[in-house]
Automatic annotation (TrEMBL):
Native organism: Phanerochaete carnosa (strain HHB-10118-sp) (White-rot fungus)
A Gene Ontology molecular function term of the record: alpha-1,2-mannosyltransferase activity
Official protein name in the record: Glycosyltransferase family 15 protein
GO terms under cellular component: Golgi apparatus; membrane
Family per similarity comment: Belongs to the glycosyltransferase 15 family.
Record bears the keyword Signal: yes
UniProt-listed Pfam families: Glyco_transf_15
């Protein structure tokens, strides 16, 4: 791999080294970012960091999605830092915008109430569009459809350690479906009726609930109430079969039909997390201790002996969100 990279560096300044590492196995996976043109600087920085820490050895293809056409500047600058192929996709109108059957009067009242309560993004329609898109549509995008695995990346995140083992292959070889690095509590005011809706769905569709599920992570009282724990979805490495399968498809349709993405402010993080915890076995969900990751204001920094020092980590191991009182790692660990 080193030799090939050097050859390509010495050989051509323009061509990406697509033809290297032919013998190294690779998963059917993409690095996926939803972004706005206004986020070009921070998008490029996130891409550059993940390339330096991981992808320069693998050349997984990148996909960028946006409900508006990406600017030439965005495309040129992103293309400049990727080590493999890259595609820029436009999100179909109906996969993004608030559906016509939503009662806008009711939705706007809900937004005003949430603004008064100081709920984060409470007044934003575009944030709600984004959450609904990330919950039920990104894996249906024509460009994304050909892939099985994705790694969700956001603008302005940081990858603090070398990632030597391929997380996609690790997950594939170990029968994992969903991977996370940070786990935290949702704000109750954004999802007041989500859990009741989920309970109704699983009462009507008990066949979708996995036997060895992770309900004990979501609930402290056997499923009666939701403890607000979720995997922080700005980082996700997952198998899209989980979202494309019958259980999640029906689940998303059921949730969406209540209008909760607009009448409340349901986040894709609790929507994904509840589904992963209930429809997958708990051993199919994986905590990536070894991946140093930061999304403002939280950082997961590897604490296991040797991981921090051995992987050139730039994060401060004393500043590890796992030990924060806002972390749900205790709930995750109690079910292991
Ligand atoms: P936060 O992490 O919850 O504070 O929300 P972000 O602002 O980081 O948004 C989450 C992801 O959705 C990021 O990848 C953003 O770039 C993306 N995003 C948010 N709003 C929009 C939008 O209106 N259009 C597009 N194309 N992407 C958006
Ligand atoms: Mn973000």
């Amino acid at each position: 791999s080193n030799i090939s990279s050097k050859l390509s560096f010495n050989g051509s300044l323009d061509e990406p080294d697509l033809d290297v590492d032919i013998l190294e196995p690779r998963a059917n996976a993409t690095l996926l970012m939803l972004a706005r043109n206004s986020e070009t600087d921070t998008a490029v920085r996130s891409v550059r960091e993940l390339e330096d820490r991981f992808n320069h050895k693998h050349h997984y293809p990148w996909v960028f999605l946006n409900e508006q056409p990406f600017s030439d500047d965005f495309k040129t600058r992103v293309s400049n830092v990727v080590s493999g192929s890259v595609e820029f996709g436009l999100i179909p109108h109906d996969h993004w915008h608030q559906p016509d059957w939503i009662d806008e009067e009711k939705a706007s009242q809900a937004r005003q109430k949430m603004v008064q309560e100081n709920t984060i993004y409470g007044g934003s329609v575009s944030y709600r569009n984004m959450c609904r898109f990330n919950s039920g549509f990104f894996y249906k995008h024509p460009i994304v459809q050909k892939y099985k695995w994705y790694w969700r990346v956001e603008p302005d995140v940081h990858f603090h350690c070398d990632i030597d083992e391929d997380p996609f292959l690790f997950m594939e070889n170990n029968d994992k479906l969903y991977g996370f690095t940070i786990s935290t509590y949702e704000f109750h005011s954004t999802i007041p009726t989500l859990w009741d809706t989920v309970k109704k769905f699983i009462a009507e569709n008990p066949q979708y609930v996995a036997k060895d599920n992770a309900m004990g992570y979501l609930s402290d009282d056997g499923g009666n109430s939701y403890n607000m724990c979720h995997f922080w979805s700005n980082f996700e490495i997952a198998n899209m079969d989980l979202w494309r399968g019958e259980a999640y498809t029906k689940y998303f349709e059921y949730l969406d039909s209540t209008g909760g993405f607009y009448y409340e402010r349901w986040g894709d993080a609790p929507v994904h997390s509840i589904a992963a915890a209930l429809f997958a076995r708990k051993d199919q969900i994986y905590f990536f201790e070894q991946i140093g990751y930061e999304h403002n204001p939280n950082t997961h920094c590897p604490k296991v002996a040797g991981l921090w020092s051995g992987k050139n980590c730039s994060c401060n191991p004393a500043n590890n969100f796992d030990y924060s009182i806002y972390s749900c790692m205790p709930q995750w660990e109690r079910i292991q």
